[in-house]
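FYI - complex with 4-(N,N-dimethylamino)cinnamoyl-COA, inputs then prediction.
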Amino acid sequence: MDFKNIEISIENKIAYLIISRPKALNALNKETILELKKAVKILCEDRKVRVIILRGKGEKAFVAGADIKEMKELDQKEAKQFSLMGQRVFQKIEDCKKPVIAAINGHALGGGMELALACDLRIASEDAKLGHPEVGLGIIPGFGATQRLSSLIGKGLAKEYIYTGRSISAKKANIIGLINQVTKKDELMDKVKELAKEIVKNSPSSITKAKAAINLFDQSFLKEGLEKEAELFASCFKTYDQKEGMKSFIKKEKPQFKGEQGGK
Ligand code: DAK
């Protein structure tokens, strides 16, 4: 399968899935999300694969979020479709019968952080920065973070990081349980492979069953929460603040927000 923004390979039962748009810090545009969907399906269904490792291309970023330049033009209806499209792909990762490990090799922001949250395990290099800057763009997280981040680190911390948009160092992320391990920059892939190999030694059917059981832990309210998140995300796209936030990012200026009723 030929992809433009995704690279996949398989070695010793471990699959490598790389998001590859380094010039845009691997930001997720629609094309990349659709390719990701296909790649996840291929690898999750491949019997030779026991563990999937997901990372971003290059030195700087895992994924620096959804593509703001593309998202800027969405209306409310398109925003809802975009949100649901991303949510479905991320749900496929969560539901994949094999463990997926995020190797966080740099910025994991917004939709990039949400991608990492949909994975089973997260290992980050010491220089990685994680976080949810969406409210500084006049939107909210729309690919599952309101639910998955709260589930992982608790509602109190999730609210703190989403309300402030503050970035989280790998060290801090490790302390609060957001990531499983932090490594030296040049050791990230070795450590991730070590973990994958440890999992591969065990019974694949047991791992699949354990994953399904653990995922049920908060699944009952996840679906409803995700629907509400997509609806609220979409409603951001009729506000002045969303236009102001995204225009300012592109112009590299500070946004002047007015609140939901401001402007348009
Ligand atoms: N989108 C598009 N382009 C991006 C990008 C992004 N998220 N992040 C970086 N880039 C581009 C930059 O514009 C720049 O392009 P050129 O100017 O060279 O053309 C290039 O990548 C290199 O970035 P910088 O020059 O900014 O690099 P720096 O090292 O100075 O800064 C940075 C790195 C990661 C701190 C900075 O690039 C940055 O703040 N990026 C934006 C991070 C961010 O705000 N991410 C969250 C995006 S919002 C939805 C569901 C989910 C979401 C949205 C909708 N629905 C349900 C509809 C999720 C939303 C988000 O993820």
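DSSP finds eleven helices and ten strands in the chain. The domain at 1-186+203-264 is CATH 3.90.226.10 (2-enoyl-CoA Hydratase; Chain A, domain 1).
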